[in-house]
Amino acid sequence: ISEADAKDEL
Amino acid sequence: MNIFRFAGDMMHLLSVVVLLLKIHKMKSCAGISLKTQELYALVFICRYLDIFTGFISLYNTIMKIVFLASAFSILWYMRSHKVVRQTYDKDQDTFRHYFLILACMVLALLVHHKFTFREVMWTFSIYLEAVAILPQLVMLQRTRNIDNLTGNYVFFLGTYRGLYMLNWVYRYLTEVHYHHRWLTWISGFIQTALYADFFYYYVKSWRNNEKLQLPA
User: Fold this and answer.
1) Number of domains in chain B
2) Any transmembrane segments, and where (chain B) (predicted)?
3) What is the ipTM of this complex?
4) For residues B129 and B56, which has the higher predicted lDDT (pLDDT)?
């Protein structure tokens, strides 16, 4: 799982 | 982005708009906890450290800027505006919020997905957001006359994380790489649960057409 994927929520 | 997530974000946005409306139009922050507002500003700073480096979408970037800017303008109004700051009930806002910050930081250092600066700060922001409403809830309980805008502000804020929970369930069921978020889920659940008591009295007062008042 990529870092960006995990941080796409606000 | 699914409908639950979008509706959640809109509720979050609405809560901020309602609060700014109260402060800007009524020139009053009566019943609003400065400590909760300080905690939210800290939450946004720590979570959005990647605002200029980690681009996800224009939507995400704009929302991050809006949340940061609104948090700081609320703080400015409550602390520096010559009329608004006099309506702040300092004596009712006595929650020891530094303990919350300390406890969340210790927990973030102990329980996280990855031990990097970014990740620990992000985790800290998740923990702190879950409990940031506590000073506000304590203040509401002490306030005899809760005005509609303050009540709606807290209601929208609670609804926001509730909708995020539905969003997590939806994503868990529909996305393949979406199974490692337990840390966010537990914090989000605790955050939503803290509002349960408030929701109960909010809905009750709304159905009975009465003024909202929390039992002491």
Assistant:
1) 1
2) 55-77, 98-115, 121-140, 152-170, 182-203
3) 0.82
4) B129
